[in-house]
Design goal:
Uridine Diphospho-n-acetylenolpyruvylglucosamine Reductase, domain 1; alpha+beta
């Protein structure tokens, strides 16, 4: 067991957008038992605790930010903990990379999460945002989640005990932000080749329509209404491919903000506000940020 502390840690190193100011520190732990040391350590560091995995859905402001990043790098390998003729329940650490987990499931013929192919980040991050893609969401297969919170310690919550909504995860009985340590998913047994084909097809579609290799935080705005695409509204209003300083809306998909040339958060927020104002003025729709703002 060990905890590593990085002082004055830049958000540009912990987010897929590669931008943002400096946190007071980053605390990295690799075993669930390390959490017992967190309250005392965080008290000594000061600042507000902020749990981050791979930072694939975050936009941090510039400058000095009063946060201590908590990185739960618990990469416990997937393991089957329960099995029936048709289903299997798999337990996996929060720090395990999501693409690697999907490949692990596909190889064994465990179906249910393959729609998330192409979503970056960790399993814990996917749970924390109830990640979704191509009609698949984490909530569809989640069985339980193990979390740490200083007032209750380490506890396992069933899916029925948590709130999972569109890009939202919370636990009604826990006030502070919990640290997700691991999760269990109930998956369907099927032909591995069928799962791999779905993953390959989804990846091909994403590569053709989304900037999967760019420095991006995924879709930056939520769809404003059922059947109304934020990306199409942005495209309609002329923001597809629009550049502002070192940031831009992707020429592949207008709802993807990308860092093209050492962009700053200031430039990013200016472009986002410009888009929100224009879309509201021209279409009447108000665009709400899907990306989480830090600072």
């Amino acid at each position: 067991m060990a905890i590593t502390v990085h002082q004055s840690f830049s958000f540009s190193k912990r987010t897929t957008l590669r931008m943002g100011g400096d946190a007071l520190a980053e605390v990295v732990f690799t075993h669930a038992d390390d959490c017992e040391q967190l309250p005392e350590l965080l008290a000594s560091l000061g600042g507000e605790p902020l749990v981050i995995g791979r930072g694939s859905n975050l936009l941090a402001k510039d400058g000095e930010l009063p946060f201590v990043i908590i990185n739960p790098a618990v990469t416990t390998d997937p393991v089957c903990v329960e099995e029936t003729d048709d289903t299997v329940t798999v337990h996996v650490g929060a720090g395990f990379r999501l693409p690697r987990f999907l490949n692990w499931c596909a190889t064994r013929g465990y179906s249910g999460l393959e729609g998330l192919a192409g979503v970056p980040g960790t399993v814990g991050g996917a749970v924390a945002m109830n990640a979704g893609s191509y009609g698949c969401e984490v909530v569809d297969c989640l069985e339980s989640v193990e979390v740490f919170e200083k007032s209750i310690g380490t506890v396992v919550f069933k899916k029925t005990d948590v709130v999972l909504q569109y890009r939202h995860f919370s636990i009604p009985t826990v006030n502070d932000q919990p640290v997700i340590l691991s999760s269990a998913f109930t998956l369907q047994k099927t032909d591995p080749q069928k799962i791999k084909k779905v993953i390959d097809d989804n990846l091909t579609r994403k590569k053709a329509t989304q900037p999967v290799s760019a420095h991006s935080a995924g879709c930056v705005f939520k769809n404003p209404a059922e059947g109304v695409s934020a990306g199409k509204l942005l495209d309609q209003c002329g923001f597809k491919g629009k550049i502002h300083g070192g940031v831009a809306f992707s020429p592949l998909h207008a709802n993807f903000l990308i860092n093209i040339n050492n962009g700053t958060s200031k430039e990013a927020f200016e472009l986002l506000h410009m888009a929100q104002n224009t879309v509201l003025e021209q279409t009447g729709y108000s665009l709400e940020l899907e990306v989480k703002v830090i600072g």
